Known about the structure:
single chain, alpha/beta, FAD/NAD(P)-binding domain, five-stranded parallel β-sheet, 6 helices, 17 strands, elongated, binds flavin-adenine dinucleotide
Amino acid sequence: MHDCIVIGGGAAGLGASLYAARFKLDTILIAPDMGGTGNIAHRVDNWIGDPGISGIELMQKFIKHVKEYEVPLINESVKKIEKIEGGFKLTTNKAEYEGKAVIYATGMKHRKLGIPGEEEFQGKGVSYCYTCDAHFFKDKVVGIVGGGDSAGLGTLLLSEIAEKVFVLYRGERLKAEPITTEQVYALEEKNVKVIHNVNVTEIIGDKTLTGVKLDNGESMELGGLFIEIGAEPVVELVKDLNINLNERKFIEVDKQMATNLEGFYAAGDVTTHSNLKQFITSAAEGSTAAQSVYKYLKSKK
Ligand SMILES: Cc1cc2nc3c(=O)[nH]c(=O)nc-3n(C[C@H](O)[C@H](O)[C@H](O)COP(=O)(O)OP(=O)(O)OC[C@H]3O[C@@H](n4cnc5c(N)ncnc54)[C@H](O)[C@@H]3O)c2cc1C
């Protein structure tokens, strides 16, 4: 039985593995892809000390660093987690593993529109993360799809950076927090225009995005498009373990990244811990979770 099994190969899982190894825990990391969502972040300007690094390069550095500590990085997908005497049994698509403690770091899935051009122009004008990418669109005309909190807050930020922001929303009235909603509508006197009752049907472009087609028959020229229609934490695997989730299905953790189930910790975008959902918060949560596993196992001896 391993001391610690980390599920997830993103910033949180890799951060957790590094710290777990430094705590001399017998640790393995399981994920189908090493690097996680970082692999699709085209330029990262907020990882302190390495401005402008590409997401993939940053993740390669994380992986190299973890490999220096000889943590086995197992390219498999976990299908089932069971509580067993003294720990947990994990079944993957290929094998079974047992661990005294688990760090669960499976991240989030950003909801997609599922329209033509979306995949093609992702990272080429289409973004799912305004916190990460807004500043690439300085003085451009951009669109933002959605009408909830993410779209609302994204609009407020983009209005300070872009020349003009079109909010493309399928509903009658924005449904972000009331104060955010009011602020967005107030900006219509400046550089924001909210277009209601509209769906984007196609993203068009050449090498990069140049515009969108709408279901009212119109086309718009745009220099960027933010799709902010929500993100879902990846929590399918914890359902049978009765792990506490909040109303948005993020895993409830305490300050030590512990869940309500003894020996089961969580880190990164999948948790309730930080609203920021960034590399720096995810890696930090991973490191805290590893320290908690170390303390937990020590207390068991
Ligand atoms: C387009 C984009 C650009 C971004 N740019 C930035 C940026 O510039 N700066 C910044 O700080 N943040 C950025 N972010 C946010 C950042 O990517 C996330 O905060 C970070 O990746 C979260 O790390 P994580 O480890 O929690 O999750 P993830 O990186 O999503 O990793 C989750 C891991 O879990 C694995 N997994 C899922 N299910 C299973 C399973 N059943 N079995 C095994 N493994 C599983 C996945 O394969 C993956 O390896 C960006 C996000 C996006 C979408």
